Each structure stands twice: as C-alpha cells, then as structure tokens.
Amino acid sequence: MIGRLEELCWRWRWCLGLLWLGIAASLPMWGLSRVQLRLILMIALYAMLGMGLDLLVGDTGLVSLGHAGFYALGAYGCALLQVRLGWSFWAALAGAGVLTAGVGLLLGLPSLRLSGSYLSIVTLGFGEIVQMVLRTWESLTGGNYGLRGIPRPTLFGLELTLANGGLPALALILATLTALFCRRLRRSAPGRALRAIRDDPLAAQMCGIPVPRWKIAAFVLSALITGLAGGFYSAVNGYLEPTNFPFNTSVVILSVVVIGGAGTVRGAVFGAALVQLLPQVFRGLEQWRFALYGLLLVLVMRFRPQGVLGWRSRVSYRLPGKEGQCTYPAKG
Amino acid sequence: MYLSCQGLTMAFGGLTALNDVSFQMEQGEILGLIGPNGAGKTTVFNLLTGVYVPQAGVMTFRDRDLGRLSPRRRVRAGICRTFQNLRLFSGQSVLENVLAGSCLRADYGFFDMVFGTPRYFRRERALGREAMALLEKLDLTPYAHSPAGALPYGLQRRTELARALATGAELLLLDEPAAGMNEEEAEALGKVLRALREEGKSLLLIEHHMSLVLSLCDRVCVLDRGRVLAQGPPGEATADPKVAAAFLGGGREYAGS
C-alpha cells in the first residue's frame, strides 16, 4: 500500500507541488490564531533543522550532537550583521549561512580521523564552546543579557511578522527549498557518494570516491542549512540569548531525524511535527513530559529503529529522465 | 609496460608479507596470482590500490608511478579492485551500488546539480543508462532493485564486479571472484571475464579455483610466503616441483635453509 502511495505521489508530484505552493502562499489569509501560526512556523523550522542534520546522520552516517552550535552561530551571525553592521535581513541571512558553512568546514576536519561516538563527543564539545563564547564575549553578543532589537525582515517594503502570516509563509518556503535541495542531492552522484561512505568507507575509497572531501562537504552543507535556519529564527524571535541554544536543542534536532526516519525528507517533517506538537498536547503532564519523551524514544528505538516513516522506498530507484519511468519490479 | 611491480616489499611488524616481489603485465592480459593462504596475494592488491604503502619497490601503470597517486587517483587512472570478503553497500540496491561506482565519472558541478542544468540531466541520464547496460551485460537486470545484501553469494560477487566496471577501470584486480561458487557458476564467471578481455580490459586475478585459473589465465604468477616462486603460462608454472611443494606441503626443501 505504501508503494502504491509513493507511486501516486511521484506521478502527481507537479500537482502536489503547486497545491503546496498555494497553501504556503495563502497562509496569511486563513485567519489562524497567533499560536497556530507560531506552531506551523516552528514545525517548518525544525523540519529544516532536521533535514540539515539528516545530511550528516542519515546520508553520511556521522552523528553530530552539536548542531545547536551551528544554529546559534547562524542566529547570532544574522542578528549581529543587521544590528552592528546595518545589513538588510536577506544579506545578513546569506552572510550567516557563509559563516556557519565556514565553521562547518573546520568542524568537519576531525571527522576525517574520528568516527562513531568519538566524533559525536567532539561535536558535543563544539556546541558547548559556542554557547560559552556567546556568554562571555559580552562586547559583541551582549552576553547573558542577550541581544535585543533584531529587526523583522521586510519584503518589497512589507514587514513580515507572525501576525500577518509573513514569517510562517517564509518558514514554509525555506523548508520547501531545503527539502527540494536534499531530494536532488540524494538522487545525484554526490548523494550516492555520501551513502557509499556511510555503508563502507574503504569500499567507497576503492571506487574512487574522495572520502575526506565528501565528509567535509557533508558537514559544510549541514552547517549551512542549520545556519540559515538559525538566521531565520533570530528574525522570528527578535531577541537572542545564549540559553536559547542549550545542548537540549541538539538532542531535539537529533530526535527529529531519528524518530521521523533518517535519510528521508518525510521523516524530518514528521519528526518536526511530533517534537513541536507533543509539548502542546501533553502540557498537562508538566515535568512528567520528559519521562514521556524518554519512553517514546525508547519505544521507537525498540520497535522502529529505522524511524517511524523510515521505510526503504517501495518503489524502484528512479533514474533521472524518461528512462526513470520504466522501472523493473523490485524483488527480494 | 602496462603494469609493472619491481621489488615490492611489505612487512607488518616482524611478518614480511611480501619480499622483493616483481612481476609485469601486458595490456589485455589475464594474469593469475596464485599461491597458498598467507602467501601475500591480497597484500599485492592492497599495495596496488594504495591501501598500504610499500616499504620498498616501485609500481608503475602505463609508465605512471603509482606510488605518487592517491588511492582515488589510481581508480581514475584506470585500476579498480574487488574484495575477497565482499564489501558491497549491502543496504542499497544493486543499481545503486553500480551507480556508486560511477560517481567519479559524474563530471558536473555543484551548481549544475542544485539548479538542474541540462548538463546535469544529460550526465545523470547517461550514467543511469550505462549502469543499466552494465547490469544487462552481467545478467543482473532482474535484481537491479533488490537490496544487494539479500542476494545469493554468486550474484553479490557479480554485483561487485559490476561496481568495479562502473568506475570505468580498464585494469581490474579481482580478489577470488569465484570463491564459494560451484563448478558451473565458476564456468559462467569465466565466460564473463573472457568477454571483458575481448572488450580490452586487463585482469589481475587472485584465485584458488584451479580449473578456472588453468582455462582462463594467459600467465600465472605463483607466490609463496611473500616471494615469487614461479611465473609463466599456467601449465608450465604449476608443473614446477617447487610450486607443487608449496601447495601440497612437502618438506619445503626449496626454501633453502
């Protein structure tokens, strides 16, 4: 049944795309409450964060526990470029992306020597270091007092806010672009190279794949996406402080990937919806919520280690172009 | 000279895996590398592909010094290998495995990919077509979309061969391609390998399946305990009493103690 659904989605992908575009663009006109709009925005944002981390975790097989660091760098980078240098939001967002991609390049270097949990510990350290620097470099970041007065983005003279639906719409657009990028990457040679490295680095090297280069590239792309999400978050909040980016955030982003299903866009979207909706649904449980999350994570690991939506595609691997349509029935 | 190894020496701690090994290979030749277990055959492959760096010796391929090339550049230069214990990307389909092999030939840039330029689609389509043609040639088409790890052993071996071919290599280093195959399957494999030679590929072959070696190889090079024991046409080399002694045990007088 899932295979049939996938086949239908593929056949009607252009119509679905248009429909989605219509939904995203008409969001301001739906008369949703601020709470609902913020929820949509946060789901889109975490879907984007999940997809960014997924390039590392799902495709390359490198687990990062420090993505809150990239998230914070993107947010502070974007905010500071606007506040201190007077850049426009769009230029600052691009600048923040370049900044985090550069830092991603540096953090990618240890991945050439370390693997598995050892690499995760390095990334965990990175996340903590970023938070520490944001706390102590008061002259630049405002330290624990935070950074205030981050302007809202404007588009053609119109200020995008939560209330007029502009920011949620922008969040949906950013998440959609990220999803399209990830999809294209996965269906192209670079994506195949990353998966080869994930499954067997030595065999990948013996196939002529430049393993170090692609590992670093995966870090750079992942950091770039996370940094852009961070830049956008700074515009949403209008106010930043180091405690916005605790270790907890890294874990939540990783949960989005793991619970939803690593290596898939649908998994990131589902995971994001779950981590954003659950706190709303179980608000009554108060501090017992965390016990519930733990239990949920354990159950997912026990019964669906590949993630809730992490099934292996039931339809055949499609080659690009017309030949892609003629598929051989999957066996075995 | 197409492929030449001169004085290869490789020691792991106190164990000398290869000691002054030299052999040469012509283009279009099928050279068998045979010898008892632990003779150093796979070490030769690991040196040629750059997994290890030899302590001494020179390897050249088409008069290029392989020692100066990274493992990746050796594949680009046209040398690709398979593994004794299969190393497929086992969760991925057979087709994806083959496409992973052709990654290095996807010569479009990052921006071609992101914006989907005509060049990107042209190249990707060509790679896909080539991969399907390769599967067709190796009779793997019905399994194109099966996960590689779930296939029977012989098919996994063929998938690995397809992946190596997809890199565009012209010299294939095959590490026991017929291991675990019955007589019939080995015969079919021999047919495939002969067809590859007809296309101008050269094969360096580690194999224990003697009937395959005798029927397929133009020459063999016999290794024992890291030394070259004999070289020549398969009939002659295996008739050498030293070789028989190495394979069957028998005193080891030849070692000269």
Written account of the structure:
The complex is a heterodimer of chains A (332) and B (257). The two termini of chain A are 17 Å apart. Chain A has 14 helices and two strands, in the order αααααααββααααααα. The radius of gyration of chain A is 20 Å and the shape is globular. Chain A has a two-stranded antiparallel ribbon with strand order 1-2. Chain A has helices at residues 2-11, 13-25, 34-60, 67-83, 89-108, 116-136, 138-141, 166-186, 189-199, 201-206, 211-237, 247-260, 265-281, 288-303; strands at 154-155, 158-159. Chain A has 332 residues and is an all-alpha fold. Chain A has a domain at 34-251. Chain B has 257 residues and is α/β, with parallel strands linked by helices. Chain B has two domains: 1-78 and 169-257, 3-Layer(aba) Sandwich (Rossmann fold), CATH 3.40.50.300; 91-166, no CATH class. Chain B is 39% helix and 23% strand. Chain B has ten helices and ten strands. In chain B, the strands form two sheets. Chain B has a six-stranded mixed β-sheet, sandwiched between helices. In chain B, strands 2-1-4-5 form a four-stranded antiparallel β-sheet, covered by helices on one side. In chain B, α3 (94-101) runs parallel beside α6 and α5 packs across α6 (153-166). The longest helix of chain B is centred in the middle third of the chain and has 20 residues, at 118-137.
